[in-house]
Fold this protein.
Amino acid sequence: MSYADKEIACRECGGRFVFTAGEQEFYASKGFTNEPTRCPAQRRARKHGAPLPAGPCQHDVSGTGVVTSGAAARSATGSLQGGPPRASRTPYSGRLPSDPIPARVLRIDPAGRFLFARVEPDGFDVYVHHSLFRDAGVREGDQVRLLVEASDRGPRARALWVEP
């Protein structure tokens, strides 16, 4: 059977989101017969017990963290985030501090699996795994302190503390 992307109205917020052909095929392979009735933001909120966003949501219709209004947006470089592809990025090679350092949360993965924080005095980004922040109530823009270590993909956090 062939599938085509279709727009669906969210029953919670009233906004429209795209139920992609790939998602439809996945649903069919699992034996699901009903289409989703909630947008990705509303489904995430319900799954994690978070308060539901009020009014029409900005929808992550691609499932990749790119907020769009209809279909997944790609830049001229082909990158979903608008920056250079990961393979062409050079990891931070500066000296990493051994003590906890201040940082600001830049972006949290829509599925809550990771976040990126910017170390403010030095201006580099740090990857933070969900196991360090999932119970801390961290939000984008929050001030945190990080204990940072090097990894093959760049700096990553070993510990995170939320600033009061």
Notes: Confidence is low (pLDDT under 50) at residues 60-83. The chain is about 15% helix and 25% strand. Residues 21-29 form the longest helix (9 residues).
